[in-house]
Amino acid sequence: MPVLKSKKLALCAFILVLCAAIVSVILATKSNKKASSSKIKIGVALTPLSSPFLVADQLGIFKKMGLDVTIYPCSSGAACTRLMLDRNVDYATASDSVVMFQSFDRDDVSVLASFVESDNDLKLLTLTPANIDQVSDLEGKKVGIIKGTSSEFYFDSVLISAGAQHISVEKVYLHPYELVPALLSYRVDAISSWEPMGFEADLLSVAEVKNIGTRGIYQLSFNLLTRAPYLEFVGDEPIRLLRAIDTAIGWINSNPDLAIGLIAQRLDAPLNQVEWSWNDYLFRLSLGNSLLSNLQLQARWALESGLVSGTPPDYREVFYTYPYQQALSQRD
After folding, report:
1. Which letter, b or e, does each residue of 256-268 get, where b requires 16 or more Cβ atoms within 10 Å of its Cβ?
2. Scanning 10, 20, 145, 177, which has its CA 20 to 30 A from the CA of 267?
3. What is the pTM of this model?
4. pLDDT of 245-291, one tens digit each?
5. CATH classification of 39-118+219-329 is 3.40.50.300, yes or no?
6. Which residues does 62 contact at the CB level (< 8 Å), separation at least 6?
């Protein structure tokens, strides 16, 4: 009997050790997955609009949230989004226009939150010698535009607002880097552009630069995007990422002068270039009706303009709201 009892005790001990080993392996696996998911790549457009990401990186806020972030600089939100769709980065910063156009081509792009808005980032610029004082004066003129972007949406919106949608205007489609040179060389009579092109034109032009656009007609937003399938395997990573961005936004709003200096340094841009449009930016974390209405409006415009085809998606399904809601609930 004592031998049998001893064997039973040994068996129980073996089972306990085995269970402990299994639990240890499971915990280690989960820990490794969590550590792996915390190492992320973000495509960030090189513009002051992306300031929360640059600040969070510079001040170590990402690290405080347990995130090992590598920032991949992009020339535009569209370029960042392409990097994300090609799986070269995990997240991307992009304007609402990019979201709208992508939504007609694919159903795997998710919006996590907006982090900045501006009602004056887009401008319709002309030079004094062109003798264009109002929108109706564009009759028979050439306007430089970046096709299928907020540049074109803004220009069409300005025409409608001025009751000039039926005038004869030649749209000259150019790359972003071509707009200012085309204006300064009078190859076009006006350009529909975003910042910092307005600053560049004002800096480089001998003639006076005039903005004949309408402030507030278009509320630009910059947003954090990712691929929907990516979200299935990363746990609370998006929550921690949004908390980091929210913390950076709080710092920016509390320290605007320091933020301007930091962003100028990170973008390798003159201080006055960043100051030029800084007061036009509203940095805040949001995900709601304003963006939803904007996307719906742009989708109708894109369909009517023949830039897209098909049926507009339900943009409420494009929003992935859980990380945003959790990030807000965990604010200090």
Report:
1. eeebbebbbebbe
2. 145
3. 0.82
4. 999 999 999 999 999 999 999 999 999 999 999 999 999 999 999 99
5. no
6. 56, 68, 69, 241, 244
- Region 122-211: CATH code: 3.40.190.10
Give the pLDDT score at 3.
44
Identify the residue whose tokens are 């920032």: 71
Same-fold call for 39-118+219-329 versus 122-211: yes
Question: 28 is written with which tokens?
Answer: 């280690």
Are β-strands 209-211 and 68-74 bridged in parallel, bridged antiparallel, or unpaired? unpaired
Tell me, rounded to whole angstroms, the distance of Cα 197 from its chain centroid: 18
* Alpha carbons 189 and 183: distance in angstroms, whole number: 6
| pLDDT for the residue numbered 76 | 86
The residue with tokens 């031998």 is: 3
**How does the average pLDDT of the chain come out, rounded?**
88
| Averaged pLDDT for residues 62-81 | 94
| Cβ neighbours of 108 (radius 10 Å) | 11
pLDDT at site 22: 41
Query: Do β-strands 109-118 and 281-286 pair in parallel, antiparallel, or remain unpaired?
Result: antiparallel
Distance between CA atoms of residues 123 and 212, nearest Å = 8
Q: What's the half-sphere exposure (Cβ side, CA atoms, 13 Å) at 313? A: 19
Report whether 37 contacts 237 (CB < 8 A).
yes
Write out the two tokens for 29. 């696996």
Q: Beta 190-194 vs 122-127: how paired, if at all?
A: antiparallel
Extents of the domains making up the chain: 39-118+219-329, 122-211
Place of tokens 């480089």: 204
Decide: residue 89, CB within 10 A, 0-12 exposed, 13-18 middle, 19+ buried. buried
